[in-house]
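During data preparation, a discrete fold description was generated, and the record follows.
___
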Amino acid sequence: MHSGTDSPGSTAGPGGDTTSGPGFPEPAADERATGRATITDVARVAGVSVATVSKVVNGRYGVAAATAERVLGVVADLGYESSLVARSLRRRQTNVIGVLVAEFEPFSTELLKGISAAIAGTGYELLAYCGDAGRSDHVGWERRSLSRLAGTLIDGVVIVTPTLALPQHDGVPIVAIDPHTGPTGPATVDSDNLGGARTATEHLIGLGHTRIGYLGGRADLESARLRELGFKEAMAAAGLTPDPSLVLEGGYRPDRSDRPTHDLLERPDRPTAVFAANDLSAIHVLQVAQELGLRVPEDLSVIGFDDVPEAAGSTPPLTTVAQSLHEMGAEALRMVIAMLESGPSAGHHTRLPTRLVQRSSTAPPPS
């Protein structure tokens, strides 16, 4: 550690600080390798010691106001940022909250927008990390990501739709959004999937539909299970029995829902309405219907779930059940910060309401 006093091989800078010389500390290995501005560069340009720069950038006492102002000016000019790893090693914290997603698709992107808006003014920074892109072994992606990031790059983490129940990771607060396993393990945020699915089905029944196809999510997802249950409960409450051959799995993905969608719409006794358990699958139903010459909503009504931005821009605009995606993200962020500042007991399970958004893709069945 440089003492800040004159020593052999150093020269005095303004205010008695020392500048670089033969004995001047080398930059950290991670800084040397990147070619970016280092703490040594800042010290040399400002005419102070590395120890003084460290005190200034970390907000510690013992530096004259004029010197601190000069150092901060050089920091801004050079674009210096200490690495997150180095910051973590020195301070045991980074003031960075991670958001781990399997992939950047409309659902996770909308959650990120809510998190990004809510982090303003908190003093924390945000790191978004895609942990499952291009992998075939999808289950457990979040644990692999946590092992890379927790404790070195991030202080707390929001995980979007984790596949496994997650314990607390070495004291790093975790909040899971819409976890596959439901509200277990760490703190969670989700939506009223059961009630939202009932609302969607009741909307179709209220229009006069009785033969309704259902295109669900993956069987291992709690949200998919609850949406299918809500569909069946609403049908039963109306005295209707769903045709089992019209209840198919679509996997929440257009590529996986393509074959089931064709199966529903190409049969001679096709349904007059389809409830797809997420918007991306519902939009694919609209596209397949158009390919087959079916008019929506005159020949076929379609309803989705999520209300991602693509739903309003589809042809025709998609009727759907809206989750408060921005608020889900914001609430998850608030929970992580509360756990960082008040301890794990600040975590809890939060379920947000859903609402029906009526657009142009649903209407009474054809005569």
Notes: Residues 148 and 154 are 10 Å apart (CA to CA).
